[in-house]
Structures
1.
Amino acid sequence: MKRVALVIAAVAALVAGCGGADSDAADSATEATTTTGAYEPGPFFGECGSITDAEVQSAFGAGPFGQITRNSVGCQWETVGFSGPGVSFSWYRGSPIGRERAGSELIGRPAEDIEIDGNPGFQAETETLCEIGVQFGDDFFHWSITYSDQPAARPPCDVADELATLTVERKQ
C-alpha cells in the first residue's frame, strides 16, 4: 500500500511540474536561451575530419594500421591495439574546448595557444604524443597522435599540425 501511495505522489508531482500554460513554457525557454546564450555552430568537417586513411598513414608513418574505427563523433587508427601507436580525430559539437585543454594540462601536458587559418586552439605535447584542438564557434575538433613507447617516425606535433591544417582547409 505504501508503494502505491509513493507512486501516486510521484505522478502527482510530475503532472504538477509539467502543467501550466503554454506561455509559461515559452517564458522558461526564452529565459534559458537568454541566460545561456545561443549555440553558435561551427562548419561541417566530414567523416574523420575529411582526411583519408592513406593521408593519415602517410603523415603518421609508423607502419600499417591494424584497426580503424569510425563512428559519429570521430575516428581512430591503431597500429597494434589500443595501447600501441595511433592517431585519433574527434569532433565536439557544442562543447567547450577549454575543458579539453584543461584535461591535457591536468595530466601533465602543458598546452600552448595556437592558431590555424585564423581559428584559435591549443597544442599539448610530450616526447611521443601531441594533441591539437581547434575551435570554430561553439564546436571544436581534436587530433591526437601517439607513438606510445615506440620511436616516433615523425615529431608528433608535425603530424597533428599537418592533419589539423588539412581538416581546416576542407571544412564545409
2.
Amino acid sequence: MTTVRLGVGALGAVAVGFGAYSLLTHLGLAALLGLAAWMAVALLLHDGVVVPVSTATGHGVRCAGRHLRPLSRALIRGALVLAAVCTLIVVPLVAAQQVAGNPPVNATVLQGNYALALGVFWGVLVLVAVAAVVVVERYSRRNSRQTTRS
C-alpha cells in the first residue's frame, strides 16, 4: 500500500508542477494577478460565508428536527446542500443575463431563463425532500410499532 500511495503522491506532484508551469508560461502577469485575486476572494467567501452558513444551517436542522429520525435530518441537510450548490452555479448566470443586455453579447452561453429554472428546481427539490422525509418517518414509525408488538 505504501508503494501505491507514493506513486499516487508522485503523480499528483507531477500534475501540480505541470499546472504551475503551464500557468506561468501561458498567462501574462496581469492574468496571473487576476487569477490570484479570484482565488483569494473564493477562499474568503468559502471560509467567511459558506462554511459558517452551512455549519449554522446544519445545527439549525439538528435542533429543529430533533424529533425526526437521523436519516430524515440527513435528507434535509442533503437537499439544502444541493440547493446551495445549484444556486451558487446559477446566480452568476442570472447576473450575467442582466448585464449582457438584450440580445446578450454571447447568446450561446446565456440562453434560457435561469431564474425560472432555478425556481422550478427548488420547488421540485422541496417536494422530493418532503416526500422522502414523510416516507422515512412513516416507515420507521410503522417498523417501531411492529417491533414493540412482537
3.
Amino acid sequence: MKTKALRHPATPIALAAALLAAFLVLFSPLSASAHDALVSSSPAADSSVETVPSELSLTFSAKLIDGEGATEVVVTDPSGATVTEGPATVDGAIVTQPLSGSGPAGAYHVVWKVVSSDGHPTSGEFSFTVAAGDEAATDTPTTAPATTAPATTAPTDQTPTPASPAPTAPDDAGASAWIWVLVVLAVLIVIGVAVWLTMRRRGGTAPSDSDAPTER
C-alpha cells in the first residue's frame, strides 16, 4: 500500500501576491492625488466683466484648512500690478479675496494657493478680462500726463508678489515620490512572504512513497 502526502500548490499564493501588488500600484497614487479642486470662481475663468470687481471668490470641492500662510490669492492687472487689497478669507470651501475695485481694461491674472482638506497644498491659476477701465484708471493719463512717470515705478515694486504660490509644486512631487517608495517596499514584502511560504510548504510536505508492511 502506497501513501502520498498532499501538496499545496503555490499558484494561489502567487496569484494573491500579484493581485495585492496591482491594487497597491493602481490605487495608492489615485488616493494621494485626490486633492480638493476649484469648482467655480467669480469672476469665472476666461470670462469678461465690465470693470474690476470689489472682490474675487473661489469655491472648492471641500472645506479647506485655514491658517497663517495657508491661503494666498494674487490678482494682477495687464501691467503686472497687483489689485488685491488685504489678505484672503476662508469660509468652509469658499475663499474671498478683496480687490481694489479699479483698474484698466485688459486681461487680469489670478494665482491661488490653498491647503486641501487632506492637508496637502494645491495651487492653480486662471485669467479673466475687464472690458472697460473705470473712470479713475482712464482719467489719470489725460488729466495729469506729467505725473504719470512716477506712477510707473509702483508695478515694479509689486510684481514679485505673484510668485509666492509657485513653491507648492515640490511638496506634491515629494509626497508622490514617498508613496511610490512605500508601494515598491510593500510589493517586495508580499513577494518575499509568498516565496517563503512556498518554500516552507515544499520542504515540509515532500511526497513520500513507502510500501506498507505485509504479513507473511
4.
Amino acid sequence: MNKSEKQSKFSAYKNIIQYHGVINGVRRIVDQFCQNDWYDIKNGTNFSQILSGDQYHGSLESKNSAVMHYQPVYTAAIKKPLQDMVKNQPVVGASSTCFVDLGCGRGKALHIAKSTLQHIIPIGIELNEELLEDAKKNLASVRSYQKDSHSVFVNANVNDVDYNDLLADFDVVIVFNKNSFDKATTDNTLRKIIEASKGKSLFYIYSNPVFEDLFVQHQCVFTMKGWHKNWNTKVFKINEQEL
C-alpha cells in the first residue's frame, strides 16, 4: 500500500468515526480492516469501497462520504454458513451446485463462495454494469477459478431475470441476499427462484434478515448473530413441498 492509499484509508477511517461515533466507529474500523481491507490485500482484489445509493443510480452528488468509503462487513456471514452447509447438508457437496448473488456489486460474495466451495458455479446478478465488470475481474483472482473458469454474470434487475433458464442446469441452488432489496422485491424474487428450482435442493442465505417473515414456512438450518446487523445471518432450506 503506497503513501496515497494509506492516506485515503486513514481519511476513510476518520470519516467512519465522525459518522458513527467512537464506540461503533471503532468497531466498524476493526471489521473494515479485518474483513475488507485485509481481504483485499491478501487476495489481490478490490472490494474496499462501495457506491453510495446516489452514485449507484447515476448521480455523483452524494454528500455521505462515510458511506462511500467503506463496504458492509459480511465476509463471515457468507463463509461460515457455507462451511456449516457442507458439514450438515451433504447435498451441497454435489458437483452441480450454483451460488447466486442477488445484487452482486463488485462480487465479494461470489469470491468468498468460490474460495470456500471450489466446485460451485458462481452466478452474479447486478444492475450496475460498471460494478459487474469489477466483479468479473475480482472473481478471476480466485485460485480455483483459474482451473474452472465457468461462471455466469447477468446485467439486469433481479426482478427481470429468467430464473428458469438461469438455474436449469443445477441440482443444488444456493442464493445469497444481503438484504439488498425492499420486501416486494425480496418476495417476488424468492417466489420466482422457488418456481425455477422445482426438483432441486434450494438454500437461501439471508444476511440481515429484515423480512424474515417471508420464510416462516421454511426450515432455518443455520443462524449467526453479531454486534452489527450485517453479522446477523440465517440460512433457510426451502421446504420440498414448495418445490
